[in-house]
Amino acid sequence: MRLWMLGIAAIVLSFISLFIGAIDITPKDLLNWESDETHIFLISRIPRLLAIILAGAGMSIAGLIMQSLSRNKFVSPTTAGTLDAAKLGILISMLFFTNVTYTQQVIFSFAFALAGTFLFMQILDRIKFKDVIFVPLIGIMYGNILSSITTFLGYEADLLQNLSSWLMGSFTLIIAGRYELLYVSIPAIILAYLYANKFTVAGMGEDFARNLGLSYKLVLNIGLVLVAVISTTVVLTVGVIPFLGLIVPNIVSLYLGDNLRKTIPHTAVLGIVFLLICDILGRLIIHPYEIPVNVTVAVIGSAIFLTMLLRGRAYAK
Amino acid sequence: MIEIKGLTKQFGKKPVVEDVTVTIEPGTITSFIGPNGAGKSTLLSMVSRLLEADTGEVLLDQNNVKKWKSSDFAKRVSILKQANYLNVRLTVRELVSFGRYPYSKGRLSAADEKFVDQAIEYMNLADMETKYLDELSGGQKQRAFIAMVIAQDTDYILLDEPLNNLDMKHSVQIMKILRKLVDELGKTVVIVLHDINFASVYSDRIVALKNGRLMKNGPTSEIINSDVLREIYDMDIPIQEQNGCRICVYFNSHT
Description:
Chain A is an all-alpha fold. Chain A has helices at residues 3-18, 36-70, 82-96, 102-126, 134-156, 160-167, 185-194, 196-202, 206-211, 216-237, 244-256, 260-285, 293-316.
């Protein structure tokens, strides 16, 4: 697959995404600056598209970095407790401050996502049996433990209602003023690209990296910070989107290998294309209502993931 | 020159390397031999800074290796540990290019590309440079990793059991290439070997370890004799001369 093909697909899908929804908007309506259609276009459709693009690229790259650094193809923000830790952070911030501000939520969520992912990497360091399937299983169990703590605290504090909104990844509520946090992931994505070579080298193991004079620990920590930044911004604006960080990098790895300098652009654009398709489907299936994107992603993603598992065990080793 | 001075390392309470002092002669192949658990790999890891010694020091050009900047050290000393477990999908050329990382940080200059070309040529990998590592056989993979180390262009090349899992043909190929690296390019190779006959036939000097202690250190001809080998391996090892090579015939020895 070529990058320009993915690019064209992304542009076409973006265009489609802008012009579907409960209210019909045609390009002609936009000529009238004062019309309701233009208004909806600016406060709803464009923010939604930008959110999809940033979340799609961000989560895919976060997954790629985690797979590289953990040297396991099946580790991603959803299979290593990163997102569960971020959610726990949000809840703790709500318990901690009576009138929690958005900034406080962001900081807590980021700190927990970072600490949670770091802890997982520490666990990974200590286990001897590093099977491709075993490691993500530990990650999922670990995530579930974090998540059950969140649920328990949420239940005790009567905040379960609030919690469920982050459980469900959806672009339905994205309007101007509610998604701008996602812009924070742009510098993280750029940094990820600049660090691509370092992540690739680190992905070959500590001994290998140190032979080439790379400060392994530093690169590892930078990688984890980038993953935490991206995950936090996505969870707080869109919610949890499963599978994205898992399957997109793996598909790219299959046809392009693991040299991150080469694969990061593909991973980003494929992530956008995949998320756009899922979101467009979600909006069309029961039009004029919507199926949240995490449902369509989960259905399509799990099918792809299962296929990869069945056909690709040899590859993942 | 690399000088190992009084190096000691304990894992928990168990000493793995005890008070080892060895000087690595430049322009030679030096083999580390010894029974299992002798501390050969641990010693190599400390020389290459992958492990920190408890006491003692390793000097590279009279300077403690700990004091070297990582990127400068990586231009002088390279180490290849057993790398067959790596599951990273890189092409041969990409892998070899990473050998230039200490110089280029990933942005290869024309000069870097030339080193990469030469290394690939040297290891006879030109016709498979676009293949992914996971499509290669064990021997080809090992050659690709050695090509990377050649591209790294260090004076010292440290290899931890590079013949592991290789068949006879590929083992001989690798050893011949190492010999060429020393004879033609003036490199210094330090290698941990299990097969004593490869050590006998290809190395200039042998360092024999046992239970973490240095047993013998000298030219190959002094080490490969039955008396010395009995001390190291606790077995009677008859030696036969064959085309000027000393071959240890240990297969039916009393143990």
